[in-house]
Design goal:
Layout lengths: L2 H9 L24 E10 L10 H18 L3 E11 L5 H18 L2 E9 L5 E10 L15 E5 L4 H9 L9 H7 L15 E4 L4 H12 L2 E5 L7 H4 L6 H6 L6 E5 L4 H8 L4 E8 L4 E4 L17
Parallel strand pairs: 2-3, 7-10
Antiparallel strand pairs: 1-4, 2-4, 5-8, 5-9, 6-8, 7-9
Helix pairs in contact: 2-3, 4-5
Bound molecules: adenosine-5'-diphosphate (ADP), thiamine diphosphate and magnesium ion (3 copies).
Thiamine diphosphate binds next to loops.
Length: about 300
Amino acid sequence: MDEFARIAAYFTPLAAEAGRGLADDAAVLAPPPGRELVLTVDQMLEGVHFLPADDPALVARKLLRRNLSDLAAMGALPLGYLLTTALPKTVPRSWLTAFVTGLAQDQSIFGIGLFGGDTSSSRTDIGLTATLIGHVAPGQALPRNGARAGDRIFVTGTIGDAALGLEARQGRLADPSGWLTRRSLLPDPRVGLRLAGIVSAAIDISDGLVQDLGHLCRGSGLGAVIEAEKVPLSVEAAALGPAYLETRLTGGDDYELLLAVPPQHIAALREACGVLPVTEIGMFQAGSTVQVVSGSGEPLRLSDLGWRHF
Ligand SMILES: Nc1ncnc2c1ncn2[C@@H]1O[C@H](COP(=O)(O)OP(=O)(O)O)[C@@H](O)[C@H]1O
Ligand SMILES: Cc1ncc(C[n+]2csc(CCOP(=O)(O)OP(=O)(O)O)c2C)c(N)n1
Ligand SMILES: [Mg+2]
Ligand SMILES: [Mg+2]
Ligand SMILES: [Mg+2]
């Protein structure tokens, strides 16, 4: 099947109205009236972001969800996406069928459609990119640079499951319930929370809690202190014991939100998050470094702060 047959068979059925049946040279999108557009792009590369044997449906969904998480960090709601695929000849049709099934599933869950994309071939590894387009009320996008000294640091959900899940998928630790593996393969982006006017800064955790907190600190011209024992962890992660603390704090792939919250807004934050757990883990302060301390205030030495591409 050549590129054009493949687009028609697999991708045209996923197209949103703005995608014009994938029949024109580009998409034409009418932004929701009175809203600002929010644009983000992230890649999924075989061997870097996913394992060659991973279920293609889950690869597709994680591709969308990693981008949806960036929209969530901006306080934006999603509209749709552009997709690029670079596939080697060896990829069977069954891979593509599963891949588009995953896309369709998350399109329906998150209410998004496909606007268009680009298809090319790859010599060896699979390369995938999604550009998500969302919208936000004018001036309400959540910045990384708005934190103030004294703002409390909150995270959604639990931290560290995905990094442990990757270890499990690579056979380096046991995951009897499958929960850690699930969190590594299929993150839950926190889209739809109404955080504008409540949080002073936001970022999603992709590289690891400590490194991404460093990005908020740099953006806001501050330092921060967090208490390691306060970082929320799942029952499954807790069962592995303290040996995995550093992995949890720096491993990344969490796609939870890390938020700066003025103390007087904490009740409003909890209200906005409803049943989604949010946990206070520390505070912003004058300075420029991220300190991780134990309950007794002892500083923790981390050998690595988080994921970085070379
Ligand atoms: N190759 C690139 N070209 C242009 N902008 C980039 C590139 N890579 C990253 N950025 C921008 O740099 C910032 C940080 O990127 P990144 O670390 O990928 O953020 P995130 O973890 O939220 O995906 C974002 O504003 C992103 O748009
Ligand atoms: C095979 C494999 N190895 C390693 C990882 C872990 N990993 C890869 S990239 C990454 C950080 C997030 O990816 P990045 O491309 O930096 O996304 P962004 O920060 O731009 O959202 C992590 C934790 C993985 N998910 N899969
Ligand atoms: Mg990125
Ligand atoms: Mg991000
Ligand atoms: Mg990154």
